Amino acid sequence: MPQDHIDKINRWDAELDATGLLCPLPVLRARKKLLSMAPGTVLRVLASDPAARIDMPHFCAEQGHELLDVSEVTSPPAQAYRIRVRSNPRQ
Question: Which of 12, 61, 52, 59 is nearest to 31 (CA)?
């Protein structure tokens, strides 16, 4: 796989560490951060709450943001959600 493709896959513009927070806090913190970000930028959210597996994709769909991918990270043990900010998120 070309290096420029790998760099695009692994990039994000800001990161939010929501590990240790329980529902609904990871989504609420992500919402607040996304509102401060420019359209097209990518937020990486780290969340350890099992409910985030359901909440984060639902939140993105409802707000009009694009959930790029979800991956497991080991340190800290969590899921990493990469979310692209849409130009006109639903309020």
Answer: 59
